[in-house]
Design a protein that fits this description.
Length: about 500
């Protein structure tokens, strides 16, 4: 009997982020033979968690939207058979997110469009038309993305090109002269690293609609999504192999990929190949000379979204109450400029959440604080590398850099939660280098390639490449986030399954 690496597979998938796992599940459920190759010790990409002491920390997925009954992610997860197996905690109806400013003013986002509008109008009664127009525009824009609405298209296009060049900042600014309301409506833009110059309104709209359609946390961590997907894949005969770093590929005489080559020299043969790593890294793996210069230069020249500094605070037992909502904290009256910060007033924007841990109930076990950080801040250590799978050391200066940044973040938290410092038992943090090493992109980018309303076609990445049997998936294809990446996986798989039948299966789940 051949070992798992000796046989030829219908599909070889590089990377076990959500995109790779979802593709593997779709294809395995359609009776294809599938293997997923993961370089790390843990599967899941941004779904990974880690523990320090007895505390569990999410690295990328802190909450998820579109999980109310009948919503699109709800249906996708039902189709995969994992919805009932996920441990979920619904965030507060009257405030799943709170937008907070340095003056102490807070503005809640309520669940559901009607309640969301009603709540904001109570804070801005003279802006009723602006708030209602904003909600209507989000619904209108989202209706133009067929797959997000579980609809097929005859022409195979899943983005409505007419609305791709509407700029998010400019559209919101056109609704109202009220600067505070503008900032409130865009107040959660750390969800997509929003910038004034580039971010398209459709990115804002799809993400906002998702969270307004059922916002939930994952009880005891988001890695359960990866675990449940892995069970589905194996149940349908697929394989997932960890500690297998793909470094290059072998080709047939007529230019098809025949195998991928691992860092230890092993080879895995396949008929079709799907890369779930960043498109620029995919070009490196599958061979610079295999891609047209015009394509290669475009992909390698695209700007990535900014990276992040993520701080995890562990609390002494029963000292800090659990928050069943998230906080977006802004120390500026222009929420669109905070990714391009000056080091002396960093951080200007923070995302704050307390993970829901079943054993601690009404008290928070920990707090996660996510802020923007440019990759240039850690450039002096860029030659270093460290993961569980490939341990490496970074110097004392790097440790001190992290401690200094942690202290700056905690000072901000002290302003918001006076006395919080005394409740902190331990502090851990992750820099752009951490995300670079674990996720496999070049600069630790949070959300991959920046979408650009000025030149939308330039930032659209097709799932098909010029190599006939190499395909792309992941957060750079359609949109990042749990919902966006799941949608991208279906788009990647449509050439191999009957899309109309598959969409009907999702609707009938």
């Amino acid at each position: 009997m051949l070992s798992s690496l000796e046989q030829e597979y219908d599909f070889v998938i590089v990377g076990s982020g959500l995109g790779g796992l979802a593709c593997a599940a779709i294809l395995a459920m359609e009776k294809y033979s599938v293997i997923v190759l993961e370089k790390n010790h843990q599967i899941g990409g941004h779904l990974q968690v880690y523990s320090r002491g007895k505390s569990i920390f999410d690295t990328g997925v802190h909450y998820v939207g579109s999980l109310d009954k009948g919503e699109n992610l709800y249906q996708f997860f039902k189709y995969f058979g994992i919805l009932d197996k996920l441990k979920l905690k619904r965030l507060d109806d009257d405030q799943f997110d709170v937008i907070r400013f340095a003056d102490g003013a807070e503005y809640p986002y309520a669940q559901g469009f009607d309640q969301f509008a009603k709540t904001l109008i109570s804070y801005f009664p003279e802006e009723k038309d602006a708030v209602n127009n904003y909600c209507e525009k989000i619904i209108e824009i989202c209706s133009k993305f067929p797959l997000y609405n579980l609809k097929s298209t005859s022409d195979g296009h899943y983005l409505d090109s007419d609305i791709l060049n509407i700029n998010a900042h400019d559209y919101i600014a056109s609704l109202t002269e009220n600067v505070r309301l503008r900032n409130v409506l865009a107040g959660s833009n750390l969800l997509y690293a929003g910038t004034r110059r580039k971010t398209p309104f459709y990115v804002h709209a799809l993400i906002m609609k998702s969270y307004l359609s059922g916002a939930y946390k994952f009880t005891d961590g988001g890695s359960q999504i990866a675990i449940q997907f892995s069970k589905v894949i194996r149940q349908h005969g697929g394989k997932i192999v960890k500690h297998k770093k793909v470094v290059s590929a072998g080709y047939t005489d007529d230019g098809l990929v025949k195998e991928v080559i691992l860092s230890n020299g092993e080879r895995v043969r396949g008929k079709q190949f799907i890369s779930n790593v960043h498109p620029a890294v995919s070009i490196d793996i599958f061979g610079q000379d295999r891609f047209l210069n015009i394509y290669k230069n475009r992909i390698q020249g695209l700007e990535n979204s900014v990276s992040t500094f993520l701080v995890h605070l562990t609390f002494h037992e029963k000292t800090f109450k659990y928050l069943n909502h998230n906080i977006y904290l802004h120390h500026t009256d222009n929420v669109w400029e905070t990714a391009d910060y000056e080091p002396d007033n960093w951080p200007q924007t923070s995302f704050i959440c307390t993970p829901y841990i079943s054993r601690t109930g009404e008290y928070a076990d920990s707090m996660s604080v996510m802020t923007y950080m440019k990759a240039s801040e850690t450039a002096q250590w860029a030659e270093s590398f460290s993961t569980v799978a490939e341990p490496g050391e970074r110097d004392e200066a790097y440790s001190q850099f992290k401690k200094d940044k942690e202290a700056q973040v905690i000072r901000r938290m002290e302003q918001t939660f006076p006395g919080i410092s005394e409740k902190i038992k331990a502090v851990h943090s992750a820099t752009p280098l951490t995300f670079r090493d674990y996720i496999g992109n070049k600069d630790g980018s949070m959300y991959g390639i920046m979408k650009d309303s000025m030149s939308p076609a330039k930032t659209q990445i097709n799932t098909k490449t010029k190599i006939p049997n190499l395909h792309l998936t992941g957060q750079n294809i359609s949109l990042h986030g749990i919902l966006g990446v799941t949608v991208s996986a279906f788009i990647t798989c449509f050439p191999f399954v009957d899309k109309d039948i598959l969409i009907q299966k999702i609707k009938d789940a």
